[in-house]
Amino acid sequence: MPKKPSESSSFASRLVAKMAKPQRPREYAAQKDDDWEEAGGVGDSAHSPSDSVASQPQPQQPREDAAPTRAKKAAGPGRGEKSDNLAGNMTTLGNSFIAFVGAGILDMPYAFSKVGLSLGTLVIGVTAVICLHCMYLLVDCKRHLEIAGIKVAGYGDVGHAAYGPVGRKVVDVSLVITQFGFCTAYLILISNTLYDVMADSPGIWPYIWLCVPGELMLATLRHLKYLGKFSLVADVTMSFALFTVFSYCYKEIRHQGEGGGSLERLDSNWPAVPYFFGVSIYCYEGIGMVIPIHNAMRNKPQFKLVWGLNMVLVTALFWGVGYLGYYAYGVKVRESVGSNLPTFDIMTALVQLAVCTGLFFTYPVMMFPVYQIVEESFKKPDGSPPGNAPRYAIVVLSAFVATLVPSFSSFVVLVGSSTCALLAFILPAIFSLKILGGRPVALAREGIIIVLGIVAALLGTKDALIKIIYD
After folding, report:
1. How many CB atoms lie within 10 A of CB 229?
2. CA–CA separation, 236 and 240 (whole Å)
3. How many other C-beta atoms are found inside a 10 Å radius of the C-beta of residue 170?
4. Which label site among 1, 59, 350, 396 has the fewest CB atoms less than 10 Å from its CB?
5. Residues 385-435: pLDDT tens digits?
């Protein structure tokens, strides 16, 4: 007996429709870890379908039950869709860029202060190259599976094709933990920022719970379109904050003159590489958006070129913020570079307010896929949603975790080194070896990536847990 289409399937249809008609970039950029978008389409790949398990008869096509006919008609980029509804190269570039820019960028100067400018530049470059390669692997797997007649709507479908329900479950659980971690990090950064701004603050934790009532109200919005205006506010405020931070860093460097570039800033600290890796992979964890954005692109043969250009621009931004922030404030740079701005300054107050506002309104958008997946597990017998109780519980739980882990940078490293590393490094390499086949060169290359990902993830997670427990 065929299964009924899931609630997340209809959500995916609407989300892909929005991606194909770019209106509010944050709506789908915030879904960067969302692996259940429904779409068809054929990507570009250098692999032949005869080389892998994907070319063999499949007893079950992944998520076929979750791709009803209406999903194909919802402006999704499957075969037979009108190209007018698909995104051009520049729109795809813009969508891709926004999918990577988040709160983690404010922690880059502090991360550079741990490893040094030269070593930090090397690590962020290597991380970017490996992430880009793994994202390309997902696109190649999608192309390979679709040639074999298997529908690929998102990251989870690739996992299902490789290792069945277990592969999908690993992806889904990792995505939920990652999104939940992002939102918890937002609460931590908001509370730390308000604590720095407010005089005679009683502590950090009251500001965390101060956000809860508003997030509970936003959690009741069950359609992504209602969050569009809040997403736009978040985009504007975060852009203003980044621009102002750049301006203050430049002024600080000019103020220091020639003495601002002391040699101590160029020292390399190798033991801190796992920490820097955690922050970097946190910033680059946009792999959940690769397939949806590829599906929504009109000129798919040029996807890799556009996505590669996006990675260059994003890396330049991450490096620029990290380099300027650390070069300006040296060893005194704080976990969020915005906290280094002059005190009792009107622009500083506006920046802090902009950061808090942007993160507050980004929270419900980033938590939206978590709500969808959790509600699937608590549906009523008649298939209707369980009400708002699960959503309220998720918000309260994230506030509770933020209260226990008040260090923004340590929590960023914990999320980045664990689930982000799994999604961005380890799983794409494992899935590609299963689906695309293990030629000697690919086996060696992907094997190195898997080993590096596991080692870096273990070391980074250990470092973050030690800091959270003992600091």
Report:
1. 11
2. 6
3. 17
4. 1
5. 788 999 999 999 999 999 998 788 889 999 999 999 999 999 999 999 999
Which of the 8 DSSP states describes residue 343? Answer: T
Distance between CA atoms of residues 22 and 316, nearest Å? 24
Read off the tokens for 30: 């915030």
CA neighbours closer than 13 Å in the CB half-sphere of residue 383: 6
Phi and psi at residue 87, to the nearest 5°: -85, 140
Token reading at 258: 């020639």
With contact defined as beta carbons under 8 Å apart, do 348 and 280 qualify?
Answer: no
Residue 382, exposed/middle/buried by CB under 10 A (0-12, 13-18, 19+)? exposed
Residue recorded with tokens 């060169």: 441
What does the pLDDT look like over 74-107, one tens digit per residue?
A: 333 444 445 556 777 888 887 777 778 777 888 9
Helices (H) and strands (E) counted in the chain, each on its own, are: 19, 0
Residue at token pair 């813009």: 94
Annotate 361-427 with three-state secondary structure.
HHHHHHHHHHHHHHHHHCCCCCCCCCCCHHHHHHHHHHHHHHHHCCCHHHHHHHHHHHHHHHHHHHH
Using alpha carbons only, how large is the chain's radius of gyration in Å? 22
Cα of 229 vs its chain's centroid, Å: 21
CB 43 within 8 A of CB 146: yes
Q: Of the candidates 339, 306, 324, 255, which has an alpha carbon nearest to the alpha carbon of residue 89?
A: 306
Q: Return phi, psi of residue 333, to 5°.
A: -65, 140
The token pair at 71 is 């999903």
Q: Which residue type does 59 have?
A: P
Q: Answer whether 248's CB lies under 8 Å from 341's CB.
A: yes
348 residue type, one letter: T
